[in-house]
Please model this.
Amino acid sequence: MTQLYSKLATIYHEMYQHIFDYDQEFNFYDALLKRNNCQNILEIGCGSGMLARRFLKNEYDYLGLDLFNEMLDIARKETNSDSFIQGDMRNLSFEEQFDAVLITGRSIAYVTENLGILDTLNGVSRSLKPKGLFVFGVFEANGIFDNFDDFEQLIEHENKKIRRISKLQKNLSTGWTYDWHARYIIEQDVKISEYDDVTTLRAFTKDEILLFLKLTGFKINEILVEGKALTFIAEKS
Ligand SMILES: C[S@@+](CC[C@H](N)C(=O)[O-])C[C@H]1O[C@@H](n2cnc3c(N)ncnc32)[C@H](O)[C@@H]1O
Model:
C-alpha cells in the first residue's frame, strides 16, 4: 500500500490543495445534495478534510471516513471537529443511515479486487436510507491506458518545493490495474529529502461500473464524463 496517506500525509495535504479545486468540487456536491434534499452525509475517503471543512461550514450533518489515521488527524485539526471515523470502505457498518454517501477523490481506485468493490457497494447500500443518493468517481480505463504517460509535477507550498516524478506501469492482475511509482523530492530551506512510493490503482470501464451497480441494487441517474474520469450519480433502489 502507498505511503502517501500515512508517512507522506502532510505532503499529500500540502500538494493537493494546489492540485484539486476543492471549491469547485464542493459546489458540485452542494448543488446535487440540495437538489436531492440531502442533509446528513457520509464522505468516504475524506482524506485530510478539505471537503469536510466546506461541508461543515455549510452546516451539513457530516461524517468523514478514511482508512488512514494520519489523514484523519490532519482533517480533525483542519476542521476543528471530530466528525471523522477510521474505517475501510470495504467494511462499512453504521447504526444510522445517511441521505447521501459520497466516495470522493476517486478513492475507490484503491479497491482493486471485484469482491472488494462488491463489499464496498453493498456497504454503501446498507448505509443509505431508501432512495438515498450515492455519488462516486472512477478513473476511466480507456482514458488511462490511451495516454499512459509518465508525468512530473512541481508544487510550491509556503516555503516548500515539492517535485513529484511519476512513472506508470501496467499491472492488469485484478482488472484494469496499474502501478504508480512516484519519487517525491522535497526542498525546504536548504534541506532536500526524497521518498519513493508505489501503489496499485484500478481504473474501470463504464460498463464494469454499471454491472457492479446493478449487482448491488443501485439505479443510475446520471454519468458525467470529465477527462480521464467518470462520475456516477446513483440512488438506492
Ligand atoms: C486521492 S485521496 C482523496 C482524499 C480526499 N477525498 C481529497 O479529495 O483530498 C484517496 C483517499 O482514500 C483513502 N482510502 C484508500 N483506501 C481506502 C479504503 N479502503 N477505505 C477508506 N479510505 C481509503 C486514502 O487514505 C485517501 O485519503
Summary: The pocket of S-adenosylmethionine is lined by residues 5, 16, 20, 44-47, 50, 66-68, 71, 88-90, 104-105, 107, 110-111 (CB under 6 Å). The mean pLDDT is 97.
